[in-house]
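Supplementary notes for students who missed Thursday's class. We covered one full example, reproduced here. Read the sequence, then the structure, then the short commentary at the end.
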Amino acid sequence: MKKISLCFAFLVCCTYTFSIEKTDSLLIALDRLMEKHQVYVDKKEERINRIKKQALVSPLSLEELYAVNTQLYKEYKTFICDSAIAYLHQNLDIARQMNDREKLTQTQLWLSYLLASAGMYKESIDLLENIDRNNLEEKFLAEYYECYDHAYGELAFYTQDDRHASAYRKQAVTYKDSLYRVVDHNSDLYLNMKETLYRDEKNFEECKRISDLRMSKVQPETHEYAVVTFYRALLFREQGDMEQFKKYLVLSAMTDIRTGTKDQASLWMLADLLYEEGDINRAYKYIRFSWDESNFYNARLREGQVAKVLSFIDRTYQLESEKHKNKLRLSLLFISILSVFLLLAVGYIHRQVKRLAKARNNLQEANNQLNELNKELSEMNHSLQAINLELFESNRVKEEYIGRFMSLCSTYIDKLEAYRRMVNKKLSAGKTTELFRLTQSSEVTEKELKEFYRNFDTTFLHLYPDFVEQFNALLADSERIVLKKGELLNTELRIFALIRLGIEDSSRIAEFLRYSVNTIYNYRAKVKNKAKISREDFENQVMKIGAFNK
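Structure (token representation):
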């Protein structure tokens, strides 16, 4: 019995080791696939351009134009969100021109689902409310309830208000119940719903059975395969099998790349997993790639999901990079000291060679030693050159950042020069009245100030992307600052942004923001009165926002 137990344990260890090696091979394959991802993007764009060119060959009827737009929507749906939405809006207009209620309903349902997926929940629900439920054809019922379930489910998951989240969740459950009554039990939608239900209920055996069934119905290298493997990964995560969770995330991510899919979830989730496992370099590479893909897809919901993971991974990556730089500096110091010793050794050998000039054998031996030491010195010099190149590259990157600010200064100088020439021209032409009226107006100054503050806000939020959120966390819940539409920072936030940058003197802040010193004092006191921590400690806490050791 003891021997059987040992054999079983050995087999389990071997199986686990093989599973890890297979997953590592998949990660290497994913790395290579990411390097040539543009090939698949080009294929996708070529397919889209082919559809567009076909539409330009000859004039199309409304029916044909609707069909072409539908093809383009399906291509863009996981590629560029804005374009997919645009073609659906065109089809809404076409369906209304044709007075085709069936096409109008189908397009509204497609658009509603896509808008909810992109985070535009109100627009999605408004579309559904425009559909007359009483006159809705039976074949659209399942899709109609699915759209409502999807919109309210997304709202419940992503809203930060618990009370509203509970109400949205109840709405989603109501529509899900209606969906269960009308959906075809042989459809993938029904199987997906049952798989999710069993996973949430921890009924892993039934969930695995449905996942196996769905896997048997999809073809590799299709978008459907990427979706099914993603849900399969979630099953293994719930079971605690992280190797299988990682494996199916990799398979899903690879399929997304091969199909030219930009609306990805697998890769940033995989980056988060690798970050937790300590594989920082690979996690950073994956999250940067996922961030670029999300920006290309241009859906605010995806960008928000990826940004949360990106901030943590990027911070850790920068710390690791700094540690690596410190090691390089220590290596450089060590090599420099060693070079000094080598030079001293060379000098000593040279003196010995002079003393033993008459003894050829000893001279030859000393020369051999000298040549060997010179060879070692040359190798050390090559190492020094390599390190110097790395430091040069680091300085070049810093110069790029400085260049951004120099460019801004240059732009203001050019504008000042243009303004000077205009004034000179009007003075030369005797248009003093017009020039007087022009200089009385503060429109130019206000425009430049707005642009200046916009540049300041953008640069500051690039350095401290979570500043507004963390600043509000220091205030009482009822006193949190709510920015207007289009605002990055308001006056109160700019004052404390300057304090965060180390400018604490109210007179300097007043000069920067073009307010009186008393106004700045009043703003600072007003905000401190809203704090949920002590007034004396408030600005100290502001200074800690965005710090690595927070």
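Commentary. Confidence is low (pLDDT under 50) at residues 1-18, 390-404. The chain has 23 helices and no strands. If anything here is unclear, bring it to office hours.
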